Fold this protein.
Amino acid sequence: MSEGTQANLTYALGYSAEETARLEKQAQLWNASTRRLFEEAGIGAGMKVLDIGSGAGDVALLAADLVGPSGTVVGVDSDPAVLATAQERVRTAGVTNVSFIPADLHSLDLGADFDAVVGRLILLHMENPVETLRAVVRHVRSGGTVAFQEIDMSHGPFDIPPSPLHQQCWDWVVRSFGHAGIDLGMGLKLHRVFLDAGLPEPQMHLYAPIGAGPNWTGYDYMARGFSAALQMAEEHGLATTDEVAAFDVATFATRLRDEVVGQRGMIMMAPYVGAWARKG
């Protein structure tokens, strides 16, 4: 299919219960940085916000807290099943100012009165991120905010002292996700993507969780990402079933924790780059 169609919206990691759990762990690690990005961009009480690639709803819930009961958040994702999960989470949280729409981002018909459009880890999945950004920015009023946060794995891994298990996880994530077409260097490309989409030069910052000690949630999150990477590797013929089994994913989080703690070490996770600008 051509650029700007549903082909651009394929989510390589799927919409399983395991992936939803991984996304919830992801939110625990990065929500604080996403909140700071949105606050810096001026997202606040009473605003109407469009959240693209909503998935399980973590970013929509964060935005809803910022805009308060006088504001609204509309989340969009191509998969109705994951949005059902997001809607249930919103209901359970008692949040009433969030709604979700299953739709192709490039054919949305939502008018042009949003105060902001936001997204986290969505442009890296797009075949043409510039066209995707152009498509969603048209729903934002003049002077409104455009704020996105994307990962950068073009450098690293970052650990002191070196952790062989962390290196193993990093290598498979880069190899498998890259093979699936996920652009793991999108974070540092945001400046150019914003400009090419016709936006002003964005304000940007970088954030990376750093963990150590036995109780850090990052070990489990990385193990979930490692599991997803190995599953994709097997599906795409990059690894055999026996090779995947040899990595013993079920014990990976525990082994990674024990290795890091045993070395009195630390891990810096792949950084997220945040960028925001005002629509002219």
User: Anything to note?
Assistant: DSSP finds nine helices and ten strands in the chain. The beta strands are 48-52, 72-77, 98-102, 114-120, 140-151, 158-160, 203-207, 210-211, 266-268, 272-278.
